[in-house]
Amino acid sequence: MEPAPAASGAGSPLLAVSDLAVRYGRAVQALRGVTLAVPDGGIVAVLGNNGAGKSTLLRTISGTCRLSRAVIEAGSVTFAGRRLTGVDPGGVVTAGVVQVPEGRRIFGRLTVDENLRAGGIRQRDRTERARSRDRVFELFPLLADRRKQRAGLLSGGEQQMLAIGRALMAAPRLLLLDEPSLGLAPRIVGQIAEVIGEINRQGTSVLLVEQNAEMALELATYAYVLELGRVSLEGSVEELRRTDQVQRLYLGGVDPGNAGAAARRERPALRRWVANG
Ligand SMILES: Nc1ncnc2c1ncn2[C@@H]1O[C@H](COP(=O)(O)OP(=O)(O)OP(=O)(O)O)[C@@H](O)[C@H]1O
Ligand SMILES: [Mg+2]
After folding, report:
1. At what angle do helices 186-201 and 126-139 cross, to 10 degrees?
2. Ligand 1 pocket member 28 (CB < 6 A)
3. Which of 64, 75, 165, 182 is most buried, judged by most C-beta within 10 A?
4. How far apart are CA 156 and CA 183, in angstroms?
5. Closest atom, ligand 1, to C-alpha of 31
């Protein structure tokens, strides 16, 4: 296996998660010693089935896990050399890490503009705020057209765009994306993937949690597979595509050269992505 980004010689990573153990109440051990890294400027993917611990991981990094009564038992989160473990959600945003939560969670009764303003609330500099908004409207021209519309009236894909746009209003150095493709039509998944790529090219690092492995492996250079709260596999995307585990569980179970065909047969979400990719 190729060395993890943390050890790839490029200095210390932007985000380093080390041996993280998190549980809910007494019974549910959601993370059991997770270690991962995101290099500055990179896109790293985390794959895993339902209940693997993906959202718990992102919520722990963003400091929002406490809201769901999660307890960090062990381990640490370090961002740009600063310890983030136990920092409150606002402090994490100020540090430069912004999460787009699972299921978007935009404010349905507020307009597109108001949602964006809420995302930039910690940004005190007016010029910076205006710059972030211009960037969001450039990435998502559709949001500019709908700025006075109530967000609850947007389609699922448009709401996902707004959720990402709202996160960008805080001008993050690292964006945490929790299943941005969930429940979206294939063409829209393609559009979202393109924008994530563009956001990254503009300098924002990305930690992308996905069940849509094909989309995630298309975007990322390095990926981790999470199973029952542990990293069961990690490597460069090229390596992971070749492993039996990723082939079998996420890419439809045939040889890598024919992964697309298998996907069309066996995984509806992936079939849509491949058909439009
Ligand atoms: N608020 C909570 N209270 C108790 N248990 C929880 C809570 N949130 C998640 N869990 C449990 O923690 C484990 C990991 O859940 P998590 O939501 O992190 O998984 P996931 O990989 O994001 O799954 P999915 O793909 O379905 O979103 C699961 O067993 C889940 O039931
Ligand atoms: Mg989840």
Report:
1. 140
2. yes
3. 165
4. 8
5. 14
Residue nearest to atom 1 of ligand 1 (CA): 68
Domain ranges of the chain: 5-276
pLDDT of 70 reads 93
pLDDT tens for residues 111-135? Answer: 999 999 999 888 888 898 899 999 9
Cα 113 from Cα 154, distance rounded (Å): 13
Q: Is 30 in the pocket of ligand 1 (CB under 6 A)?
A: yes
pTM for the full predicted model: 0.88
How much is the pLDDT for 243? Answer: 86
> How many A from CA of 146 to the centre of ligand 1?
34
Q: In this structure, which residue's CA is closest to atom 29 in ligand 1?
A: 51
Residues lining ligand 2 (ion), CB within 5 A? 54-55, 102
For ligand 1, mutation pick of 26, 50, 230, 249 (most atoms within 8 Å of CB): 50
The fold for domain 5-276 equals: Rossmann fold (3.40.50)
Exposed e or buried b per residue across 132-155, where buried means at least 16 C-beta atoms within 10 angstroms of its C-beta: bbebbbebbebbeebeeeebeebe
